[in-house]
Recover the amino acids of this structure.
């Protein structure tokens, strides 16, 4: 065995910077594209962005009957819409408490340590140490916090939260308190017979206690807005023209600035080859950027034309009308790779006459029926929801029974595991947890 130097030629696929840029731009939303162009303007001196002066009229609803009046000013538009959060609501209450200022500050500290559900999830010993309080003094402070509204605030966990509310709203309901204290897991799994046997009570009594517990609020802070609402800007707007009875597709990129070439650098006479090479390199990036944006726009339009043909019912009736359509189907029609279609549909929001959706929602896996016809995964989920809604609540259908009935009534052959998977995706509990008490 010896060392030998050899020369070989072979071909490799290389991901160039320009190709990586084109792929990245393809999966950007319109807002992300705008931010990216701003960054490129700072990095490349040859790129100059010119903001568009044209005004854009957003499409109005077909059902809109109120006429606009430019001279009319609604005074309510100038009223601040500020909703109180949980912390502000609780701090406002303690200001009216007849307690010392020191206690108020200690209560404020506890309030600021509540989680999004209104629970004290931090270690109580650490909180007591921070406040320099003994065990009894700290428990007394927690009780003061729990006396505030909404009732159940300041609890340590779910059981504690429900017990606080039962003590306040239903002080005489002994069975409900026992169930919350000792049988919360059995209650969640609807193991009524276990509770009935252990406590020697009838199913009617358990049903009454269950109704009381179900009326309580497991998340006292749930009605308060902890975060500001976020608003989505559609990347694609689809309108229906009633005169021509056709859909009109518009890319909502009216605020994307025009990309122009900065002529100042071409007019400079410089003998430095280094400067010339720099300008040529930046000009190449400028050209690639323009081509990538145009390619992104063209790809999205091609995909939308296919969707308008294949998913016409969805644009008018919503996702319940969806037909089986995969990314691969669209890729074959527009003669592109499936990964390209996947990237082009990522992070895109589409506004339609039937509502606003993620563009990915217009694609659904194809499933075959026993008669040879195709149905979509979304349609199967809708059928599953309908079947569970109509089932006997005292004897709910198991996943196997649901699969069998779907094959008999809908001619859809589907496995028990697939039923379980779809049920989990729809946040529908199992049959044992859907079962109600029969008295």
């Amino acid at each position: 065995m010896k060392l030998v130097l050899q020369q070989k030629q072979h071909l490799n696929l290389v991901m160039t910077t320009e190709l990586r840029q084109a792929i990245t731009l393809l999966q950007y939303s319109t807002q992300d594209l705008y931010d990216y162009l701003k960054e490129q303007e700072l990095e490349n001196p040859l790129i100059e962005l010119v903001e568009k002066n044209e005004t854009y009229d957003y499409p109005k609803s077909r059902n809109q009957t109120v006429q606009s009046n430019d001279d009319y000013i609604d005074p309510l538009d100038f009223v601040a819409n500020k909703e109180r959060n949980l912390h502000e609501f609780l701090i406002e209450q303690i200001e009216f408490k007849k307690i010392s200022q020191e206690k108020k500050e200690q209560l404020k500290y506890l309030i600021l340590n509540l989680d999004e559900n209104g629970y004290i999830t931090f270690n109580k010993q650490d909180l007591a140490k921070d406040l320099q309080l003994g065990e009894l003094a700290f428990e007394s402070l927690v009780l003061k916090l729990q006396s505030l509204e909404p009732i159940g605030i300041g609890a340590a966990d779910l059981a504690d939260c429900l017990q606080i509310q039962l003590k306040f709203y239903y002080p005489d309901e002994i069975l409900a308190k026992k169930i919350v204290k000792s049988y919360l897991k059995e209650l969640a799994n609807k193991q009524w017979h276990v509770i009935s046997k252990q406590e020697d009570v009838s199913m009617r009594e358990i049903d009454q206690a269950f109704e009381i517990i179900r009326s309580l609020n497991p998340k006292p802070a749930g009605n308060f807005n902890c975060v500001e609402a976020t608003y989505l800007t559609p990347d694609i707007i689809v309108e229906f023209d009633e005169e021509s009875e056709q859909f009109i597709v518009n890319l909502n990129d009216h605020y994307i600035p025009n990309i122009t070439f900065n002529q100042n650098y071409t007019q400079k006479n410089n003998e430095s080859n280094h400067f010339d090479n720099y300008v040529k390199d930046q000009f190449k990036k400028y050209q690639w950027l323009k081509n990538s944006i145009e390619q992104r726009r063209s790809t999205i339009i091609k995909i939308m034309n296919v969707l308008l043909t294949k998913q016409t019912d969805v644009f008018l009736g919503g996702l319940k009308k969806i037909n089986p359509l995969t990314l691969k189907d669209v890729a074959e029609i527009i003669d592109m790779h499936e990964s390209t279609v996947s990237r082009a549909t990522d992070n895109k929001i589409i506004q339609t006459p039937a509502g606003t959706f993620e563009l990915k929602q217009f694609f659904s896996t194809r499933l075959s029926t026993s008669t040879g016809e195709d149905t979509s995964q979304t349609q199967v989920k809708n059928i599953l929801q309908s079947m569970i809604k109509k089932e006997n609540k005292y004897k709910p259908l198991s996943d196997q029974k649901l699969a069998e009935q779907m094959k008999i009534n809908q001619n859809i052959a589907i496995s028990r595991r697939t039923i379980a998977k779809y049920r989990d995706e729809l946040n529908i509990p199992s049959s044992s947890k859907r079962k109600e008490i029969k008295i």
Notes: The mean pLDDT is 82.
